[in-house]
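Hi support team,

I submitted a single chain yesterday and got back a structure, but I'm not sure I'm reading the token output correctly. Could someone confirm the output below corresponds to the sequence I sent? I've pasted both exactly as they appear in my results page.

Thanks,
R.
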Amino acid sequence: MKAGPCAVRGATGGAALAVFSGAADLAWLKILKPGFRHCFVVVDCGGHWVVHDPLAHRTEIAVVAGVGGHDLAAWYRRRGFRIVACRVRTPPQRSAPLGFYTCVEAVKRILGIHARRVITPWNLYNFLISVRN
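Hi R., thanks for writing in. Yes, this is the structure output for that exact sequence:
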């Protein structure tokens, strides 16, 4: 089976939106910075946006068609999310640093980020702001 145009590997260099939320369904997440307790990523795949939302108990994947990136970002902002527009990077040709599978780790893997010290949504937000294209 051949990967289609929405394969993340095929989206390298493509637009993405990192989305940050203050929602915390699990009690222990309340130790994280308010407004930055969860994150997920939305990747542009040639006219369709693929939403990858890694939750504690499952991962949700959705496809949003017929919407531009600015409109989609505005839609999330109106619902109280914080957005960082970024790009899918080509990661280094080595294994990613070991880490727990968290929403942050899932987003880092999709975006091609190998930053060992980025472990919370707040860390990821600051990292993305500092390297913004």
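A quick pointer for reading it: The chain has a mean pLDDT of 86. Let us know if anything else looks off.

Best,
Support desk
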